[in-house]
Amino acid sequence: MYENRIQSRGEAEKLGPETYKDKTLGLFESVRKNKLEVKLVSKIFGVIVTYKPDVVILEKCIHSLKNQLDKVIIVDNTHGGCEKLESFKTFPNLEVIYLKDNYGIAYAQNVGIKKALENNADYILLSDQDTVYPPDFVEKMLECFKEEEIAACGPLFIDANTGRKQFFIKKGLFGFKRFYPTSGKHEVLQLIASGTILNSRYLSYIGLMKEDLFIDWVDMEWCWRAVKKGYKIIGNADVKILHKHGEKSIRFFSKNVTLKSPLRHYYTIRNGTYLALRNSNLDIPHRVILFLKTFRNIFLFALLSKPHLIHLKYTVLGFWHGITGKSGELNEAH
Fold first, then answer.
1. Which of 18, 164, 262, 307 has the highest local Cβ count within 10 Å?
2. DSSP states of 236-295 as a string?
3. Which CATH architecture has domain 44-243?
């Protein structure tokens, strides 16, 4: 929520062009050349999905965002609901939605996105429960939407496990091409969900998150879909934030491998296989590369994670379910 928002066109005229420009920087969509359309106030909502959250870290996340957003929506995926979230209900402009079960990150994100759309949000920030943002994060990120057809933007991450600056990915001639910008705004192929801001204007054309993936590859699939439909995804290297991706990162020869729990490895392998075989938003060469990398990770995850056989069991099962088209939550009782 910005204290220096301009509430009317009349106020803008009184301020004069230079003051008006200074006060509106980062708050409004671009004044398009040769067009009169100007959106003076952007309504920005945040959607934080939680699952058995560390409440101390979550509170830091909320505090870092509460003055940058019009409203924060917490969607809780914890079985039975996380009672500790009740303490946040006293925060102004914050709503907690309890799903009472784990329906997956895609479903939970969609619940929050729909709530934001019902309240006419112009932009929707997606966040994990453990990401903490700089005080000017939203303002700087909104600068990415100065052109038409921008569906989403996201920051450049610094890996909290290693301290290394991460990369953006664009579509190369023969696969997914990493690049390591130090600054600037760049058109990319995909973004990590946490810290990504969606442009509500295009959601009806692109669609919401693919719920049958449950978790893992959900953000990537949405970005691929947006790009296939002709929209742009922007990576903003001028904004850098810490992000913990996975439980740990191991250096394997020249490659950093992010390792997770056996169950998360299951979803990573299953959904990578599933999308490589069935997702038409990527062209055939990129689907082949995705399939080969996913197949490699069946054994790489098991090799680098202990207990090795448990991880191998989950990665092989994930590969089989991806081949056979199984989606949704894994029922471990059967």
1. 262
2. EEEEEEEE--SSEEEEETTEEEEE--HHHHHHHHHHHHHHHHH-TTS-HHHHHHHHHHHH
3. Alpha-Beta Complex (3.90)
